[in-house]
Design goal:
The protein is an all-alpha fold. Helix content is about 100%, strand content about 0%.
């Protein structure tokens, strides 16, 4: 009987050891689960940060597109202005050239009249 009690006691020690191992394993699992939960929270936080970053980039892209459209509109206005200036310059040069020609013609006519008077006077003097 004593032998049986020793055997039962021995088995109970092994069972206690096994129970302690199971408790330790359960604590390790709980610790691992807590670590996984923390990791999941970190991933969720990172995902939120990425979403915020994406929204910021999309807003920036919209601003850039708006600015590009404004620049294109400004460029079109500048091109139209340059074309208008070129046309006005050509027209103005034409008018200015006509005025110069008219002025030269008037001065030439005046000079021709003076030359004629001088030649007539010279001829008159030569005849005397």
């Amino acid at each position: 009987m004593e032998e049986t009690l020793k055997q039962i006691l021995s088995e109970m020690k092994y069972m206690r050891s096994d129970i302690n191992d199971l408790k330790q394993g359960q604590q390790n699992l709980e610790s691992g689960q807590q670590n996984l939960e923390v990791g999941q929270q970190n991933l969720e936080s990172g995902q939120k940060n990425l979403e915020i970053g994406q929204q910021t980039m999309e807003a920036g892209q919209k601003r850039l597109e708006t600015q590009q459209q404004a620049l294109e509109a400004g460029l079109n206005r500048v091109e139209i202005g340059i074309q208008s200036l070129q046309e006005k310059l050509v027209d103005s040069l034409g008018l200015y050239t006509e005025k110069i020609v008219e002025h030269v013609d008037n001065k030439t006519e005046v000079l021709n009249k003076r030359v004629f008077k001088v030649e007539s006077e010279i001829e008159r003097l030569c005849r005397q």
